[in-house]
Amino acid sequence: MATVTRAALQWDYAPAPEARDAASLRSSYDLFIGGEWVAPARRVATINPATEEPLAEVGSASASEVAAAVAAARAAAPGWAALAPLERGKYVFRIARPLLDQSRDLAVVESLDGGKPIRESRDVDVPLAAAHFFSYAGWADKLSYALGGRSFAPRGVVGQIIPWNFPLLMAAWKLAPALACGNTAVLKPAETTPLTALLLASICEEAELPPGVVNVVTGDGAAGAALVRAEVDKVAFTGSTAVGKEIACALAGTDVALTLELGGKSANIVFEDAAIDQAVEGIVDGIFFNQGHVCCAGSRLLVQESVAEEVVRKLWARMERLRVGDPLDKNTDVGAINSAAQLERITSLVAAGSREGAERRSISCALPDAGYWFPPTLFLDVAPAHRIAVEEIFGPVVSVMTFRTPREAIERANNSAYGLAAGVWTNNGAQAFSVARELRAGVVWQNTYNRFDPTAAFGGYKESGFGREGGPAGLLPYVRLTV
Ligand code: NAP
Ligand code: MG
Predict the structure, then answer these.
(1) Residue 53: strand, helix, or coil
(2) Which of 7, 24, 165, 421 lies 20 to 30 A from 112 at CA?
(3) Domain range spanning residue 114?
(4) Is 261 a catalytic residue?
(5) Mean pLDDT of 94-116
C-alpha cells in the first residue's frame, strides 16, 4: 500500500480589509467656529501614518482664529447655561445617536488618520465615545446628585486640548461632561489626528446644537498654547507631562481652572498564583493595544520570580503571533506608529535600553516599506534605573522586571514619577485588594487591563496629572461650587 505523506498543516489569515470608501472624507476642512465653517488663513495636510499619503487639508489655526472661537463660545455661554438641564441633556443625547449611526465611517477615518487597527476603532474608540455622550446626557439634569446636593454654576468657556492616541474618544471625554454641566467649549485636536474631531463638529451641527456651544479649531502646539492663554475659564488638557507642566506654569496665579491628564509608566503586576495564560493575554492587551500609544499602558511588567520564566516564555510565544500591518485589515493586532516624530522617540528610547544593558527581543515580522512601524518588543534584565524602566516610551515596548514578595512589588510599582494606572493579577482576592490599596495609581485593574467605562473615574497621581474624567467625578471639574 502506498504511503501518503501529509504536508504539515499550514494556514494563514486571508486579508480582510475594511472598505476604505466607507470614509466620506472631503479634500479640505475649515475651522468650526460659532456654528459656521470658517476658512482658515493656513491649511496643512494630515497624513495616513500607515502609508504617508495625505488624507485631507485641515486648518492650522492662528492665535486670532483661536481667539475668534473663544469669543464665539463666550457669546453662546449665557444661553447654554440658562437652558433647562433636561433640554441640555437632550442635545448631548442627540450627539450620541449619530456617533453610533455613523460608527463605520468614524472608525475608518480614525484608523486612516491615526494608524490604529480598525478592530480597535470599531470596537473600542467609537462605541466608547458614544457611551460617554449617552452617559453624560443622563447626568445633565441630575447634577446636584453627583455634587452632593451643593449649589453650582458652570465654569463658562472651557478650552480643551487633546492628544493623538484616542482622538474621537478624548474629544468625547472632554466635551460630554463640559456640555452636560452647561459650559461651552473650544476643542483643539492633535495636529496628526484632526479628522474625527471635525466629523464630530459636523455631528454637532446635525444635532442643531446652538451655534458657538462647541467649536473645533485644528492646529499645532502653538494653537494649543494660544487657547491656554485665551479668555477661557477652564483648561482641560490630555497629553505629555512636559506640555502639562508648561500649561500649569502659564495658568499659575490666574483663576482659570485646570485639569491635566498626562503620561504614565504603569505597572502590570503578576503574582505566582495568577492564571498565567489569562495574565499573558492581559499583558499583551496592556502594552500592545493601540501600538502602546496609551497613557495607562502596562509598560512595566512586574512578575513574581517563581513564575517569571513561564510568563516570559508564554508572552514571547504570544507576541510572535501578533499580526502587525495594515490598520484597515480586521485581522491586524498592531497598526502603524502615529507619526515620524513618535517613531523617532520610540527608536531612541529602545536604543538606550540596549545601550544600558537590557536584553532586547523584537518579533521578526515583515513591516511595510512606507509608513511608520515598530515591531512588538520586550526587554529582559531591566534595572529600575534604566531609562526604559523610568521614561514613558508610548510604543509597543514592555520592560520586564521581577519581584519576590508583595511588599517588593508594591515598592517597585510605586517607584515612579507617574501614577496613572496599574494591573494586579492574582487568584487571591484579599491580596488583590491589599496591594491595590497601596498602589499610588488612579486606576487599578484586577485580572484585566485597559478596560474603560463611562461611569468610572479615570485620572492620575503625581506627574500623571490631576482631576478625574468619567463618571460623576468627571463632572466636578466643569462646575464652580457656589455654596
Ligand atoms: P503633546 O505635545 O503633549 O500633545 C498633546 C496636545 O497638546 C496636542 O493637541 C498638541 O498639539 C498640544 N500641544 C503641544 N504643545 C502645546 C503647548 N505648548 N501648549 C498647549 N498645547 C500644546 O504630546 P505629543 O508631543 O503628541 O506626545 C509626546 C509624548 O506625550 C508621548 O510620547 C507620550 O509620552 C505623551 N502623550 C501622552 C498622552 C496621554 O494620553 N496621556 C497622549 C499623547 C501623548 P499638536 O499635536 O498639534 O502638537
Ligand atoms: Mg494623520
Answers:
(1) strand
(2) 421
(3) 20-262+464-481
(4) yes
(5) 97
